[in-house]
Write a structure and sequence with these properties.
The complex is a heterotrimer of chains A (about 300), B (about 230) and C (about 200). Chain A is α+β, with helices and mostly antiparallel strands and about 300 residues long. In chain A, about 30% of the residues lie in helices and about 15% in strands. Chain A starts with a helix and ends in an 8-residue tail after the last helix. Classes of the chains: A alpha+beta (about 300), B mainly alpha (about 230), C mainly beta (about 200).
Chain lengths: ~300, ~230, ~200
């Protein structure tokens, strides 16, 4: 069991140091999604629901092939479809696999006040531990990708776990295993970055996608899920992928400067009042002030 | 007669005079409202501090666990806001700032150094108490608005996420202001002003207390005649 | 000097025994039985003369003159398999209801938005489902006339998870299609026929 504790490098809402911080030689894992070869077959959606035994949802037709408008507590990855008209009039049907990005600096973990509800493993996977979750929804505020989803019955939040139960046994995540075109790849961050850059170079050189590139946003320290995009200068056309995501400023302000100012002010206030009482004592020592009916003195 | 009635020259609350040189300051109604607000505030403070800092997260555990604390915090918050709004309906007219309050603030250093005889005559509430009232009132409204956003975070659409970002910082800031209020209020009521705590338990204070700290109110009670010996 | 140096006649051969093909020995082009235009190669013989047809009174064939001016095709989806995945909750989750894909221009012409119900009718039957308004289908200019094309998938039917909840019209895709089949393979001509489209 101590091995499991050592594999955790960050814990949300935790007082004191984390036992596993920087204690393991572990490569950062990474899922590479090549949107240029995705055919939108949804095998990854099915694999995720099946592997995690998630209950089926009700869906309705909404003028699109997209299964539902957004991920749900019981639907952790979703292909977002967008019929995009380019400036030259040609049409691209863009498909992006949308799920938790497993940020290196996770906003959800930073915002979470509950001890141990969100952890980050030494391999970079960000995992929710629902037994410790208090259902406050601060992670929803902290995430720049709008990923954590709340279940109103259990009052907890849920998201993609990067199949940490498979990865810890040396297997690839379920979505990657099921992908028929091989547009999903899994490996170390360095290897996947390498592969992604090679593919982007090929797109720029051989296929005329002059703006092709890799999406690995630095604003969150890089992510455990990276994309190869036909047009890396316009990530928003891929179903609203934010172009420069970061942990929201007010979350950072709360957890760093405001926390210190507030704590110092509160402790300082208590000390100040105590010192005031030592120096000046209570007001008015007249007997009349504190006499009770019947003349007893307090 | 309601506590807000005022008639010049005649004792405003003749029924408030009690025996043995004491006067009723807060009736049962007012005391009950105060303790509902106080009790709910203490619960909100404890659970709020737990969510504010991992060092104090154990407070939530002790009060029934993280999930229970998180579930009850907003409901108790509604009770608190309800009590504060009721206090507003009870006391807001008496809490209006008047010229004597400006002079009171200028003499604050006398108040802090316990030289109360040098203070200008305060009415039923002195300027500091009025400040506390309004501070709690406005902070309660901010806490309510930001609290609702934080309570129903998942119902808010992505396009309104700026409301979440604003609430996540304004809620603790308003809470810190109420904590400052609370510290001063407890210090004054329990330690600094002897007799004040009794006023919110039994309701009455001595005539000497009234004369020393709220001379304007004292004049109202006894009219323009000499105070009883 | 051609490449067929091993043949005495010096030119290529086609193996086309008369008995093997009902419309042989040499393939050529005919329009589908329901087509918006005449056969440009054989104006006097638009359709395959030996195509097999059913001959009951219900086996009618529409023409543009009767108002069937829109070309329709049927297809299958990745998310469903034939007619049985409409009973599987996972597949039904992916694509819950039948839909008809129509071009944006046609949606504007008949005055509907995506998600609204439309009625597609061939001379044989009608099909009602919600419209998926898409940029991916563009109108065609054929012989100087604008011709629209639409498509619908076959997977929903009369019974199924969504059908039993009463959430769709329970109309069947292959009631629309013409009852002709290829003279050799007997494959039915379900992939190209004429319909008209209106608001439901």
């Amino acid at each position: 069991m101590s091995q499991a504790a050592l594999r955790i490098q960050k814990i949300s809402g935790h007082a004191g140091s984390v036992a596993g911080e920087d204690t393991q030689r572990q490569d950062q894992v990474c899922k590479l999604v090549d949107t240029t070869t995705c055919i939108g077959c949804k095998a990854c959606e099915v694999a995720c629901v099946e592997w995690n035994d998630l209950p089926f949802s009700q869906t309705t037709f909404d003028n699109t092939y997209q299964t539902m408008p957004d991920t749900r507590w019981n639907y952790w990855n979703l292909i977002l479809f967008n019929e995009h008209e380019r400036e030259d009039g040609s049409l691209q049907w863009l498909m992006r696999k949308h799920q938790c990005m497993h940020c290196a600096e996770p906003g959800c973990l930073e915002a979470c006040p509950a001890d141990g509800a969100i952890v980050q493993y030494s391999n970079g996977v960000v995992d929710f531990q629902q037994q410790n979750c208090i259902g406050c929804g601060y992670c929803i505020t902290g995430c720049p990708f709008n990923i954590p989803k709340f279940n109103s019955v259990t009052k907890r939040v849920y998201k993609c776990s990067l199949c940490t139960d498979r990865v810890s046994e040396g297997l690839e995540p379920a979505c990657i295993k099921s992908c028929p075109t091989g547009c999903l790849h899994f490996g170390t961050k360095d290897d996947m970055k390498d592969l992604a850059e090679k593919r982007a170079k090929q797109l720029r050189g051989n296929y005329g996608f002059v703006n092709a590139g890799v999406y690995d946003p630095p604003g969150v320290g890089g992510t455990g899920v990276i994309y190869v995009l036909h047009d890396a200068t316009r990530p928003e056309i891929y179903g609203g992928l934010p172009s420069n995501p970061s942990v929201p400023l007010t979350v950072k302000l709360w957890k760093h400067p405001l926390k210190w100012i507030g704590n110092l002010a509160m402790v300082g206030g208590l000390i100040g009042l105590f010192v005031h009482f030592l120096k000046y004592g209570p007001k008015g020592r007249d007997e009349e002030d504190i006499a009770r009916p019947g003349g007893e003195k307090v | 007669m309601s506590p807000n009635d005022r008639q010049a020259g005649t004792p405003a609350h003749p029924e408030r005079l009690t025996l043995h040189h004491h006067v009723l300051r807060y009736n049962f109604h007012e005391r009950l409202t105060h303790w509902i607000a106080a009790g709910s505030y203490i619960y909100l403070l404890a659970t709020g501090l737990a969510f504010w800092s991992p060092w104090l997260y154990w407070l939530a555990i002790v009060l029934g666990g993280g999930q229970i604390s998180r579930m009850l915090h907003p409901w108790v918050g509604l009770i608190f806001v309800g009590a504060v709004l009721y206090m507003y309906s009870l006391w807001s007219r008496q809490m209006r700032f008047e010229p004597v309050d400006k002079a009171w603030w200028h003499s604050l250093h006398y108040y802090i150094t316990n030289q109360d005889e040098k203070m200008p005559p305060a009415g039923r509430y002195n300027a500091g108490q009025k400040m506390l009232f309004w501070s709690f009132f406005w902070c309660a409204l901010v806490l309510l608005a930001t609290g609702l956003v934080l309570w129903f975070t998942d119902s808010l659409p992505w396009s309104l996420r700026w409301l979440r970002y604003a609430s996540v910082i304004l809620h603790p800031i308003a809470a810190l202001v109420t904590i400052a209020n609370f510290m001063i209020h407890i210090y004054m009521g329990v330690f600094a002003e002897r007799g004040a705590f009794g006023s919110v338990i039994r309701g009455d204070v001595s005539m000497a207390f009234a004369k020393r700290y709220h001379p304007g109110w004292y004049e109202e009670i006894v009219g323009s005649s000499e105070p009883p010996k | 000097m051609g490449p067929f140096i091993m043949n005495p006649e010096g030119v290529g051969r086609i193996f086309g025994p008369l008995a093997a093909f009902n419309d042989g020995p040499f393939p050529t082009f005919y329009e589908p039985v329901e087509s918006p235009i005449d056969n440009l190669l054989y104006p006097k013989q638009t359709h395959n003369p030996v195509v097999r047809r059913f001959k009951t009174p219900e086996d009618k064939f529409g023409t543009p003159k009767d108002g069937y001016t829109v070309v329709c095709t049927t297809y299958r989806l990745t998310e469903h398999y034939h007619y049985w995945t409409k009973n599987n909750p996972m597949n039904v989750q992916l694509i819950p209801e039948p839909f008809i894909e129509i071009p944006e221009e046609m949606a504007a012409e008949i005055g509907i938005k995506g998600g609204e119900k439309i009625k597609v009718s061939s001379i044989r039957a009608t099909y009602i489902a919600k419209a998926l308004v898409t940029k991916r289908i563009k109108p065609m200019m054929i012989d100087g006339k604008k011709v629209h094309q639409i498509g619908l998938h076959i997977h929903q039917g009369f019974r199924g998870i969504v059908e039993d909840e009463g959430k769709d019209a329970r109309t069947l895709a292959n009631l629309l299609t013409p009852t002709v089949y290829d003279p050799n393979s007997y494959t039915p001509e379900f992939k190209g026929f004429l319909v008209k489209v209106e608001k439901a």
